[in-house]
UniProtKB/TrEMBL annotation:
Keywords: Transcription, Transcription regulation
Domain of life, per lineage: Archaea
Protein name, as recorded: Bacterio-opsin activator
Residue ranges occupied by any HVO-2928 N-terminal domain in the UniProt entry: 3-169
Lineage: Archaea, Methanobacteriati, Methanobacteriota, Stenosarchaea group, Halobacteria
Start and end residues of each HTH bat-type domain: 180-230
């Protein structure tokens, strides 16, 4: 099994969903999908972040006038979306595409040129959408890259990474962990201020003062978030 990795870098206004991530670095997304045939594919994508930004992404995902675009041409594939899970801190979407031959996107060209049975993983954060494709052979990889690069919009840049032997499954078990928005903010500021460094660079009391909440409340939020992360990792 071969592993093909690359990244798309988006400028503002290139893609409505990526604009949400560019404006809100705390929003991330993990996806997993595969081709059912040369003309059909599916993927599941989990977005994590503040509820209001997840609402924006859901609105975009179901709005035909705001389709995600990475190519200069319009994707003519037929899309079907469902929400599999909705929590205050995450949103999971299922997407099915047919008539993929009418689309010059990454997944459209992967279905057209690469091995059937291919699995793709992707991760989005800030302006970057990183892809990992697991394929059985290197056949047509050059054609795939050339075609993707030829059709990308001018404000999207393709960065090639590597083509090598697959190195493990590489699914982030913590990407499925849901924490509340107050817990997420508590974790974020704790990490940024060095609370988890050794030795610690700040205290619960200092962090609570910055957040303008009681130290007991902050301590409880961190404990609950840490418990969710630990349970998710073991699971």
């Amino acid at each position: 099994m071969r592993e093909l990795t690359f990244t798309l870098e988006y400028e503002p206004d290139a893609n409505p969903v990526m604009d949400v991530l560019i404006d809100n670095p705390e929003v991330t997304a993990h996806a997993l999908g595969s081709c059912a045939s040369r003309d059909q594919l599916w993927f599941v994508e989990r977005f994590s972040g503040p509820p209001n930004e997840l609402d924006r992404i859901e609105q975009i995902r179901f709005d035909d006038d705001q389709k995600e675009r990475m190519t200069r041409s319009t994707c003519g594939a037929t899309r079907h979306h469902d929400v599999l899970e909705s929590t205050p801190g995450s949103r999971v979407f299922y997407t099915y595409l047919r008539e993929v031959h009418r689309c010059d996107s990454v997944v459209g060209n992967a279905a057209r040129y690469l091995d059937l049975g291919m699995i793709f993983q992707s991760y989005r954060r800030d302006a970057f959408h990183t892809w990992r494709l697991l394929i059985r052979s290197e056949e047509n990889v050059d054609t795939f890259f050339e075609t993707v690069d030829d059709h990308l919009r001018d404000n999207i840049t393709l960065h090639l990474d590597r083509l090598c032997e697959a190195k493990g499954w590489d699914i982030d078990s913590l990407s499925t962990v849901s924490v509340t928005e107050p817990q997420r903010k508590a974790l974020q500021i704790a990490v940024e201020r060095g609370y988890y460094e050794s030795p610690r660079e700040t205290t619960i009391e200092e962090l609570a003062s910055e957040l303008d909440i009681p130290s007991s409340t902050l301590s409880y939020r961190l404990r609950r978030a840490e418990a969710e992360l630990a349970n998710g990792f073991i699971a």
